[in-house]
Fold this protein.
Amino acid sequence: MTLSPLTLFNSLTRKLEPFTPSEANLARVYSCGPTVYNFAHLGNLRAYVFTDTLRRSLLLKGYEVRHVINITDVGHLTSDADAGEDKMELAAAGLGKDIWEVAAFYTAAFKRNLADLNILDPTIWSVATDHISEMIAFAEKIAPAHCYQIESGLYFDVTTVPDYGRLARSVSDEGESRIDPVSGKRNLQDFAIWRKSPPGERRQMEWDSPWGRGAPGWHLECSVMSLKYLGPEPFDIHTGGIDHREIHHPNEIAQNQAYCDCTAGQPGFTGARFWMHNNFLVDRTGKMSKSGGGFTTLQSLIDAGVHPLAYRLLCLTAHYRSELEFSAEAVGAALTRLKRLVIAIEALRAASQKTIKQESSRGFAYQAELEAALSDDLNTPKALTALEGLIGDKTLTAHERLARLDEFDRALGLNLIQLRRSDLRIRPVGRTEMTDMEIEARLDARIEARAAKDFARSDGIRDELLAIGIEVMDGDPLRWDWRVAL
């Protein structure tokens, strides 16, 4: 099978560009990780479904992938820029707990989320507080030509690097509006490299530095860790949510330019060749945010009886650069679609046992469709169409369809080969005390009532179940399935 050329959208140029690794057969990828002061909300997790799809697509192309995800356990302020309190310090104080304990708890919760979504572990987990000495050394190198010290710490002067804000395409609109003024800064866009602890105040996380005792700025860690683990610079791809495109990533780029002394000879240098960003997951009131409270977590879906891979499937139904609306209806539809896929594959598996295991070249056409779709800037909606076309193609034997399914599973990460229909029946928390067996018995009774044309009894059983939060889903191929009412 001839592979399609891989094209990816580069946020730097706002163009689709052909991609091949700069180092033979090795793709080097850095993904901005979570700030572990709270549970990740579903909008946060969309970024990792996107990054996992990118990684799986690179593997599909035959590349090795060295993938780094950082854990931010210090330095991220409440404004996302340079004002407010450190999110980790604030969370620890609010919970009355040791900050290291808070970081460990939410790091473990985040990793469980990734496992539930069948997201591959990165090659390297990189924790910010494990790299403080390297951050100080990085800052010492760039400080003489690019930084200045004020009462609150060491700041980067963005006028010392060319094309600052090129990634955001502006330094005066959305990005600037999110930056709060800090007394003594030369320019509004200047950002903290090192924040001194205020006089008389002691943080749980602080270190000695040439600029006083304190903690690193949020942006510093990603420059340090990406160049350490993925160098020599430039590495291949840097990913993150679209909100990072306005402040965090332009500041990383400025630091990278300063560190490699590329400010004159290579004004286009950014540290990574491709910068890729996924769009927001939005609810009906706007984009999801932890700062506003009341956010939706993956565990809240699981507690409602929704399998986490239904959320992964929901993410794949939209292109990563498009906004994706989240609602109970949308995730319910994704769960139904996932169940249809699992039921169809179970039927193929049963049929495959009764047929001769033979293959023709026709099945590879779907594999080519998958490869072409993902080569087109990770076009997962088109890849899903190819998947459903393969499963439903009755001109192919069951064995042929199953044989080709493995490639789809590895690329899309839906774990369809392993999933069984029973796996998707997750017990909802606090919605009903009926056991699965009791629910199934009521459904069997409903089937008998329908067969006897006793529709009043059938409807009564349906209403009885709905009253305790169980929604009955009639019709082929779901037959007499059920789920928690969302």
In short: The chain has a mean pLDDT of 89.
